[in-house]
Fold this sequence. Notes:
binds iron/sulfur cluster, TIM Barrel, 354 residues
Amino acid sequence: xxxxxxxxxxxxxxxxxxxxxxxxxxxxxxxxxxxxxxxxxxxxxxxxxxxxxxxxxxxxxxxxxxxxxxxxxxxxxxxxxxxxxxxxxxxxxxxxxxxxxxxxxxxxxxxxxxxxxxxxxxxxxxxxxxxxxxxxxxxxxxxxxxxxxxxxxxxxxxxxxxxxxxxxxxxxxxxxxxxxxxxxxxxxxxxxxxxxxxxxxxxxxxxxxxxxxxxxxxxxxxxxxxxxxxxxxxxxxxxxxxxxxxxxxxxxxxxxxxxxxxxxxxxxxxxxxxxxxxxxxxxxxxxxxxxxxxxxxxxxxxxxxxxxxxxxxxxxxxxxxxxxxxxxxxxxxxxxxxxxxxxxxxxxxxxxxx
Length: 354
Ligand code: SF4
């Protein structure tokens, strides 16, 4: 048996592989071998189920004091297209869809230095008051670190305040790729990978579940991807607080990085390696907004088990050039999962069937 077959066999028997072994698979395994192995792992866990959620995205401001090179979403104060939603506008956005059976509201935004701390609490309370049963997944580790520095409050205090106001979980954004030399080029002002991990560790210690991400397909190498996945796996071994890993394909449009973005083969390889390597993170997402619906359907055959949700109306990926719809209705979402050959399972924020 050659080394690739030996390692894939090891994975199929539920034995953990090292980052070096995963690197060898990333480089040497044929795509169908990787996909079949990742599929066997996801099938053992979820059979032919594929999860989705009825969710709404709210991007409360695009004004940001950072200038990440890959970001086409952010604006400076006063620049054309810059906006900040008032709490009343947030309320209206929630009320506009109040007749829909939404399970989760996902809230993220830029680092806007002119927003008072009370705004964040008011926004959470307003959403929770209008939608008491909805789970609020809000604010990346980047926003938490920014607020902590700006208002001189500990990260713990902020997380506890937010939970009291209605927060249920943190999204996984802002992780990008942890390698410091890449971060210096991609997002020099953003908190380090180490700090991102510390905030998620803190959230887990406060019983706040979180997601995690990797932005891939730009200037990183497989070594960087696996170093990143290994840091996530190590943290999960300690805390078990990650619900889902979301590999985010880099969107090449409208930014200054001039990188190409991953092709379908690279996305497929990434989903498969994620499922194979992250043996302790329960769910792997094929995020249709960034990947495209057709590629996400393939992702379900190569390790992913979650299709995300209805979204309406995502702004960050679309500003970066994602050419997917800004949202899907529930019937279309189910149709795409069924057409891919899976049974759609409507889930809540914590992946419990509805
Ligand atoms: S990626 Fe986030 S932190 Fe970076 S510029 Fe865009 S909005 Fe700001």
